[in-house]
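Reopening this one. Same input as before:
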Amino acid sequence: MDYRVALVTGAAAGIGAACARRLAQDGMAVGVLDLDVERCADTVKAITEAGGKAMALGADVSNRAQVFAEVEKLRDAFGPVTVLVNNAGVTDFTPFEEIQDDRWDFVFAVNTRGPMLCAQAVLPDMKAAHWGRIVNISSSSAQTGAINMITYSASKGAVVTMTRSMAQEFGPLGITVNNIPPGSVMGTIMSEANRDRFQIPTEVLLQTVPVRRLGETADIAHACSWLCSEGAGYVTGQTIGVNGGRVVS
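Same output, byte for byte:
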């Protein structure tokens, strides 16, 4: 086999789709996973029409049985999975005093347990190869906090800390683990929901971004591509902020 196999979650649209397409351009076969397998069709089509290898997978990333079953399908189709991009996530705008247990548990199940389960599912392949790349997509809200987004920002903060711990545990195995916390990115469900809810004019939002533009999904995909490459083999446990300078520490 002269290619690597990648699993990208939440890859039907937005950042996940951009990462899946970019990794395919890098020569990887890609498992395009989303909650609704039918929504993966456009991403798979874009990859295959460009000459790449891809397959659609459907799973709730918080469900262990579903995740492991879909990873096995990917492994059977293309071979051992040695690249993982944990992008699937849900947002939440519940004010602190109104947060209910079931909502808290749901957000953490998807945003925090999901990456853990996906990593567990592919770890045997990475260990066998003594090579692996894991990229967790967190959020700039995990770095700064956000009003009425305590559940979301806390779950993504856990992803940042989980990344550091995974990096230390997996480093001796030849596996790197890093995270990308995006800033405001055009064309994603979450960013659009944020703008619609808080009604922040674009010109006002741009004043918070030193490069004076909103992000694009390709910006995240470029960083993801590098972190998954051979050239990033000495980079692990890191938070690579792709946010136009909105967060600078």
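So the earlier flakiness isn't reproducible anymore. For the record, The longest strand covers residues 29-34.
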